Amino acid sequence: MNAPAIRVEGLEHTFRQKGREVRAVDGVDLEVGDGEFVALVGPSGCGKSTLLRVLAGLLVPTGGIAEVGGVSAAGRPGLVAYMPQKDLLLPWRRALANAALGLEVRGVPRQEARARARALFGVFGLEGFEQAWPAQMSGGMRQRLALLRTFLVPSRVLLLDEPFGALDAITRRGMHAWLQGVLAIEPRTVLLVTHDVEEALVLADRVVVMSPRPGRIVDEVAAPFARPREPGIVTEPAFVASKARVLAALGEGEAPVGAGEERTAPGA
Amino acid sequence: MTALPGAARGAGRFASAYGPSAVLLALLVAGWEAWVRAFDTRPYILPAPSRIWQGFWETKHLLPEHIRTTLGEAVLGLGFGAAAGVTIAVLVAGIPLVRRVLMPLLVVSQTIPMVVLAPLLIVWFGFGMTPKVVVVALWGFFPVAVATADGLMHADREMVGLVRSMGANRLQVLRYIAVPAALPAFFSGLKIAAAYAVGGAVVGEWIGASSGLGLYITRAQTSFRVDRVFVAVVLIALLSMLLFAAVHVLARLATPWMYVRTEEETT
Fold first, then answer.
1. Does A146 contact B at CB distance below 8 Å?
2. Mutation for testing the A interface, residue in B159, B166, B259, B261 having most A CBs under 10 Å
3. CA of B172: which chain A residue's CA is closest?
4. Which of A36, A66, B127, B176 suits B262 as a labelling partner, its CA being 20 to 30 A distant?
5. A107 touching B, CB under 8 A?
6. Is the pLDDT of residue B104 over 80?
7. Binary contact (B176, A101; C-beta < 8 A)
8. Total domain count for chain A?
9. Statement to judge: residues A172 and A265 lie in one domain
10. A189: pLDDT strictly greater than 90
């Protein structure tokens, strides 16, 4: 199979809101190779999540091509493992059953699905919580469980929509190191949407920058250093230079502080 | 959590939850007894609690049979009502046209006084168990239908999107998301229905029956044994509470996640 893991060409999406036409995405081209980790950064409402929902098959775009492994994803869910912004753990399923959900939906017998999920609980730092209800778990654990559920969806392609957005900065940094470790054991193609420039540069091979609505790709920055990366690299000159370039592309130039922590985008 | 402190804590919670009601009830009964004795009220106007107890004691050999009949009708009616309610809820939630057509009619159906309908039901279905079961079912389906439809229609759209992204078909969306999401609402409706079920069965029996608490009441009334009417009233209340508690236990078993105590946070 020579088709790229993800291929997006001339993607457009317009929706109606209060009787007005809103163009969310305007001519986006993007290609992600097998095993590559691409981060998508951009201000709120730039259509990042729209792009992910299209690739997840939940939204039929008004124009353009969106393919996963050479197959059109438009209106065809089930090609990717999609992790939405909220953890969306099902409150009526215990942790183990939540993790196994993707396998069970695909028809894997319950026993086998749960055995496979159980085997990964240690890797995801959830050992001993197999029988816990989501309501009994902390934010970081819920997020790891949601990621575990995503990893268990039988697909090579992961779409992560701000997976760590709800976590505090310290927990988030821990999750970065941990996610890189997991990916070393369980390699996947990843398309990550984030607000956090530092997160994008720490995790991804390539950072794609989108403009405010209507979303377009304005720049692409290759992250310095090979994966996996140490947390210390964020102060390396090459890293800082890449970060400055991404921030410039985002239209905030030499934003002085807290680039890693900004929750709202300029002009949003 | 070991069993013993858990049980002790449970008993403590029970006492603090129901203690005040029990004390108030005891005071009311004592006041009632005192009033009747002080003013020498005739027993066919208002019997004293002690007189009611006496009435219970005199007829206690008759009561199990009546209780069995009434409880059987109530449980059966509740079952049919719940089944009908869920069926209607699925149709209402799933098909917008059905919702528009059926919803107003359902509301109208609830405005028909059961006391008017019950004699007709006896004409249609005879003096046996059937008309009573129908009364209970007609009373019970409505809260179940309304609550369940509400639960089904308010399933989290993002959760639906999540399982759809995993490749789930409509049936799987129903199974993994809509049904479990609607279960708590269903049980809320069922609790309301359960609280009225025994009363419904008694109304059915009251019009005409060969057994049951409704018949017991009719007989007591025709012989001016108001004390026995009160015996039946107390029994109806107790049976209603029993049925309500049974549904509550069922809800706990079927929706355990609703009863997770989050203060047992494990981080």
1. no
2. B166
3. A105
4. B176
5. no
6. yes
7. yes
8. 2
9. yes
10. yes
pLDDT at A238: 86
This prediction has a pTM of 0.81
Tokens of B122: 């006896």
The 10s digit of each residue's pLDDT in B133-179 is 999 999 899 999 999 999 998 888 899 999 999 999 989 999 999 99
Same domain? A108 vs A20 = no
Which of A110, A139, A154 marks a domain boundary? A154
Closest CA to B244 of B189, B181, B172, B165: B189
* Domain span including residue A131: 87-154
Q: Across residues B222-232, what is the average pLDDT?
A: 90
* Shared domain check, A172 and A75: yes
For tokens 């309908």, the residue is B117
Residue B2 has pLDDT above 50, yes or no: no
Residue A27 shares a structural domain with residue A60: yes
pLDDT greater than 80 at residue A258: no
A91 and A48 co-located in one domain: no
Q: What is the distance between the alpha carbons of residues B138 and B125, in angstroms, rounded to a whole number?
A: 14
Would you call B266 and A78 a contact, using CB atoms and an 8 Å cutoff? no
Examine the domain organization and report whether A71 and A121 are in the same domain.
no
The whole-angstrom separation of Cα A213 and Cα A215 is 5
- Run of H or E including A174: helix A169-185
Instruction: Identify from A90, A103, A157, A168 which residue to disrupt to test chain B contact, counting B C-beta atoms within 10 A and taking the largest count.
Output: A90
Which of A154, A181, A212 delimits the end of a domain? A154
- Tokens describing residue B115: 């006391």
Residue B82: per-residue pLDDT: 96
Instruction: Judge if A203 and A192 occupy the same domain.
Output: yes
What per-residue confidence (pLDDT) applies to B44?
85
CB of A72 within 8 Å of a chain B CB? The answer is no
Contact list in A for residue B184 (CB cut-off 8 A) is none
Nearest to A190 by CA among A142, A157, A239, A235: A157
Reported ipTM: the value is 0.82
* Separation in Å, CA of A89 to nearest CA in chain B: 8
Mean pLDDT of all residues belonging to chain B:
88
Cα B194 to Cα B101: distance, rounded to the nearest angstrom: 27
Q: Which of A88, A90, A132 sits opposite B266 (nearest CB)?
A: A132
Specify which residues A217 forms β-bridges with. Answer: A210
Beta strand pairing call for A20-32 and A81-83: unpaired
Q: How far is the C-alpha of A105 from the C-alpha of A217, rounded, in Å?
A: 35
DSSP codes joined into one string, A197-239:
HHHHHHH-SEEEEEPSSSB-EEEEEEPSSPSS--GGGGGSHHH
Does B183 have pLDDT greater than 70? yes
Same domain? For A117 and A193 the reply is: no
Which pLDDT band, with edges at 50, 70 and 90, does A262 fall under?
very low
